[in-house]
Design brief:
About 2% of the residues have low confidence. The chain has twelve helices and five strands. The radius of gyration is 26 Å and the shape is elongated. It is 56% helix and 9% strand. With 289 residues, it is α+β, with helices and mostly antiparallel strands. A hairpin with a 2-residue loop joins strand 2 and strand 3. Helix 1 crosses helix 5 and helix 1 packs antiparallel against helix 11.
Length: 289
Amino acid sequence: MSGDKAGNEHRIFRGVWWLVNLLLFVALLFTFVTAIREYSVRKYLSGFSDAVVPEAASPLEKVEAILAWMSNGPPRLEANNTLKLSAHDPTDTLNYRQLLEVCGSATNAFLNLSRSAGLETRRLLLLTPDRNTKHVVAEVHLDGRWIIVDPTYRVMLKDAIGNLLTRSDLRNPETFRQAISTIPKYLPEYNYDNFAHVRLNALPLHGFHIREQIDRFFPGWDEYLDWSLLLERRSFLFFFLSLNSLLCLLILRILMGLLADHHLRVPRFRLRYKLSRAVAAFFSAPEIK
């Protein structure tokens, strides 16, 4: 009976072992493909940024150059079907007029271009009282402060005397009124009473109240972790997920190998051992009798 039980355990283990190996191979393939895609996107953005932003410009001048390009750049492409465009693909957000007029994709375009120009930037979601997104802007780290840039309106928000403003400054109603008074058609409801860098409520079932749980143990987590690149560039998100899947499966395979060797005593195919023997045999001198 114990032999039958051990045989069943071995069969189950071998099935799981080959499944893990298959998934590991698929994860390796996806990591390779997504890495190439992310590299090509970065090269594209680097060339695009070099054409828009002067290399010797100061950080403030770089922001102004990007906003000027967004306002007065060359004629943009027109998509007959905007559903085929991706708000998370820089080749779309930087080239199609329709996407450069929507706050989310316009901010994505600004963030991708500013990062390629060497600026430290991140997205900021402006929320309604029930935590739905009403507008998306960007924060740029200049002179030790996270100043607000609104790519949709192509402006950096300033007070009456021209000082650049942070989101804390804009929570003052009078300062906010001064900042938007010179921006045509700026909606007053785009205030800074509620905001976030990541809106987990967008997940199904209101994100299972994940934010409340994380806030309990790690208050301010979305302030100190930079989520922008994962959210604004799908190629990087896919690469990130593929790489983490590869690492998790690799760790699982190592643990299963230890289990097979030291507990179940299951003979298994040792690829590394076979390769080392093959290499040694190939490079060793033949015996002469």
